[in-house]
Amino acid sequence: MISPMIGECVSAWAPPRGAHPERNRLRIIQAAAEVFAKRGLDAGLDEIARHAGVGTGTVYRRFPDKSLLIDALIEQRMAELEALAEDAVRSENAWNGLVHLMETFVERAIADRALTDMIFSNCGENNQALQDRKSRLGPVLAELVERAKQEGDVRPDLAVTDLAMLQFMLVAGGSFGDDVRPDLWRRHLTIFMDGLRSSRESPTPLPADALSLEELDVACNQVGPGRAVGRPARA
Fold it and tell me: Is residue 104 within 8 Å of 84, Cβ to Cβ?
């Protein structure tokens, strides 16, 4: 028989009703973000459950459809991108804002395959929220490019779509070369950004060394059938 004193102690230390389910829900959301970052949006709920340290049934009860987890992640990641673009537009100098935008985006996308999938693949083509978010980025970037042209810092024929293609190439190259030289993308970004300038007296010093032939071979061998665009499959 439990004494009244022990019963009072148990009641005092017991977590409030619903605390464990809420903790599990937050754990699942965090695990999903980490798994999607590593594996992309194709990762399954079973893998997310293992990463969260909870039973598969717990995940399915909370999130019966993986799209619910993806929607939460999309909302967060795209809000971050919108904030980044708006910060760039507010920069006193449009060129500095453009450099910051390109550098920050490429760094984030290389580290987060889910973000790469959102922007550069058809994983979210049926997700209206994602498409709406992406459509809002275009006008903001167009404003930034137009300002940079007016300030005379970029070539007059630069288009917003050029930025998207450069981002795609930098993320792809940076992802495949990540195991060989994690900072390699910074070298290529500097080369690309110099190419956007309207004029320059001398090339900008490159922040990373070029790959050796041996390193290039290792990086290229990471590319194979069935791997996601811009990101090698990892164990």
Answer: yes
Give Cβ neighbours of residue 181 (< 8 Å, ≥ 6 apart): 208, 209, 211, 215, 219
Query: Cβ(219)–Cβ(211) under 8 Å?
Result: yes
Closest CA to 191 of 210, 218, 172: 210
Question: What's the CATH fold of domain 73-220?
Answer: Tetracycline Repressor; domain 2 (1.10.357)
| Cα–Cα dist 117/168, whole Å | 11
Read off the pLDDT of residues 97-128 as tens digits, 9 standing for 90 and up. 999 999 999 999 999 999 998 888 776 667 78
CATH hierarchy code of domain 1-64: 1.10.10.60
* Cα 207 to Cα 188: distance, rounded to the nearest angstrom: 9
Has residue 188 got a pLDDT over 60?
yes
* Domain locations in the chain as residue ranges: 1-64, 73-220
Determine the Cα–Cα distance for residues 141 and 163; give it in Å rounded to an integer. Answer: 9
Residue 12 in tokens: 């005092």
CA distance 146 to 183: 30
State percent of the chain over pLDDT 70.
83
Cα separation, 161 vs 165, in Å, equals 6
Domains 1-64 and 73-220 share a fold: no
Q: Could you tell me if 95 and 148 are in contact, meaning their C-beta atoms sit under 8 angstroms apart?
A: yes
Task: Please list the residues that pair with 197 across neighbouring strands.
Answer: 154
